[in-house]
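Entry 14. Structure prediction run on the chain below.
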Amino acid sequence: MNDFSKCTPGDIILVRGNSFISKAIRFHMALYRKQLGIPERELFSHAGTIVEIWGKKYVVEAQSDGININPLEDAYGDKDPKDYIIKTPKKPYSKVEIERINKIASKSSFNPTRYDFLAFIYQIDMIRRTRHTTNKKWAGPTGKKATDRLYCTEACATWANGVRPGTFDKPWSVNPLDIDINRYYVTK
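Output returned:
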């Protein structure tokens, strides 16, 4: 059983899976990492936001069947610690911000939100089009259209921006590496 006792609301868990989709995402994250000129590092393929409800920690995440909320221990308690990292805001959330992230993220699990499978294709397209430039240009949906369907990292970025606007630039285009290297977060 993993020890998530130091996790706090607003932390983001980045996870590495073994499915074909997970491996494909990590492959494209490796291309993206090279484009950005970042040295080799562990790459992840999924993300969820940690919240606290009634004194218990949960993870809220976009999955194939929509936005789900599950006890953190049930979701990742048996996961090998080398297959995930916890990112936490450099400046810890205040009590008001904790209440806000708990409300924003957990409320999303009650709204019927479809998973944005097309975003995977948009991410690949964005990485390929920007291979020889630092101009990261998104071709997928933005704004309200983007929040009607969410994928995992987009959800985490959207919720973080709901607490601290501007934490993630263009949350609809955020991928796992963007979360990992975000200047407002550090690894726990």
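DSSP finds seven helices and eight strands in the chain.
Filed with the rest of this week's runs.
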